[in-house]
Amino acid sequence: MKPNRRKPVAEINVVPYIDVMLVLLVIFMITAPLITAGVNVDLPQADADPISANDDPPLIASIDASGNYYLSLGVNPDQALEPEELVALVAKHRETNPKAMIYINADKAVSHGSVVLLMSLLQKQAGVANVGIMTDPTG
């Protein structure tokens, strides 16, 4: 009689890996909408048309109530920048994407001078001809 020998199984069971991936997918799907990007500002209200979703994503330069400047581009968009640094980043981005729209997202408590300063720097140093100003829609 022959001894009953079993061959070793050389297969990897991938079912547990698929289960883990599905759980991670569900976690990311739930948490992704909760993550908000950008600077929290209180926008002034105005009757204006919304930005078209079909356009390329715009650059958003933000000015918070304390007068700090931010840009929605780069590794750390929540880091305050000097106006000159912000304009240099916009100019660098416009080298690769010259049609990118630039919007200013300024808190309603910010002085008019801060917004005008940023608009002037964007025009003179970054060559931006058109700058949009973001508002909250009226109710």
TrEMBL record:
Family label: Belongs to the ExbD/TolR family.
Role, per record: Part of the Tol-Pal system, which plays a role in outer membrane invagination during cell division and is important for maintaining outer membrane integrity.
InterPro entries: ExbD (IPR003400), Tol-Pal_TolR (IPR014168)
Domain of life: Bacteria
TM region(s), chain numbering: 12-35
GO biological process: cell division; protein transport
Pfam families per record: ExbD
Annotated localization: Cell inner membrane; Cell membrane
GO CC terms of this entry: plasma membrane
Topology of this chain in the membrane: Single-pass membrane protein
Protein name: Tol-Pal system protein TolR
Subunit structure: The Tol-Pal system is composed of five core proteins: the inner membrane proteins TolA, TolQ and TolR, the periplasmic protein TolB and the outer membrane protein Pal. They form a network linking the inner and outer membranes and the peptidoglycan layer.
One GO MF term attached to the UniProt entry: transmembrane transporter activity
Name of the gene encoding the protein in the UniProt record: tolR
Alphabetic keyword roster: Cell cycle, Cell division, Cell inner membrane, Cell membrane, Membrane, Transmembrane, Transmembrane helix
